[in-house]
Each structure stands twice: as C-alpha cells, then as structure tokens.
Fold:
Amino acid sequence: MFWFIILVIGSYLVGSIPFGYLMGRLRGVDLRHHGSGNIGTTNAFRVLGRQLGMLVFFCDAAKGFFPALIGAHHDPAWGVAAGLAAVVGHNWSVFLGFRGGRGAATGMGVALALITKEIFLALIIWLLVVSTTGYVSLGSIIATLSVPVIALIFNVPFIYFIFVIPAVIMIVIKHLPNIRRLRNGTENRMRIW
Structure:
C-alpha cells in the first residue's frame, strides 16, 4: 500500500508539471495570458509555434505515459490509478494554483501505455476531424468520446474502463468552454500541417 500511495502522489506531481507554461516562459510568454489562456498543446502551437507546440505535446503525453506504464508493470490497477492521477495533475496542477490544461494529450499518453492498439484508432479519428474541420478541440472531444466505444468493440479488460470513463468525463468537462465557442461559431480554427 505504501508504494501504491507513493506512485499515485508521484504521478499527480509529474502530471502537474506545466510544460506549456514552462516552454512559454522560456520565450518570455505566459500562455495563461495569450491565445485561449490554456497551457496545453493547442494554445502552445498557436502562441509559441509548431516546434515548441510539438515539444509541449510530447512532454504532456509522456507525463501520462510513463507513470501509467510504470504502474501497469506492477499491476493493471496500479497503471490505471497512476494514469488517472497524472491526468488530474495536468488538469489541476498544484504548481499553477490547481489550474491547468484540458487533459487530452496526457490522457492519450496514459491510454497509449494501457490500451495501445485501441488508442491508435482514436488518433485516426482525431486526425480526420481536425483535418476536415480545422477544429482541434472538436477533434479532441470526438476522439475522446470514441475511446470507450472502441474499448467496448475490442473487448478491453474491464479494469481499463476505470481509467477510460473518468478520463473521458474530465477531458470533456475541461472542453466545455470550447463546446460553447463551437456552438456560437467563435472557436478558432488551426492548421496542424
């Protein structure tokens, strides 16, 4: 139990590392006061450019992937707990006054560690939506919502739904401002290529 608690706390702290904020500060920019005000990948792309945006994406995904992978090496339930803690850390970072990103990249990193084959289908859905609409947020929402369906179709072990369902709820809730802007026609489009 001691090591499980250490894993969960450590995963939350790793997830809390605000890579978008840190990359922005390297450029003298506080992402919280530019673009959408979010510290995640999309705003980093928009404000900091493609290279730093990609770096933020990989760092945010990695901080979900490695804790989940380390936990899953011991037990699938540990991987699920570590993954959830990392997403919570990203979304509500202790280093930023319990504010953070949307959780999509970090959640993808966790899913990559736990349900590798299935998450690639969700990534394809994300690419198709973003390529055809230009809305990264819409792609993230639809791809996120597709994960439980894909997991059901491929009969993923039940334990992984303990990650998938709460993660989907957290990510969609964090995207509510984007959903409002999409409905109002005020959401920004972005070219990813």
In short: DSSP finds ten helices and no strands in the chain.
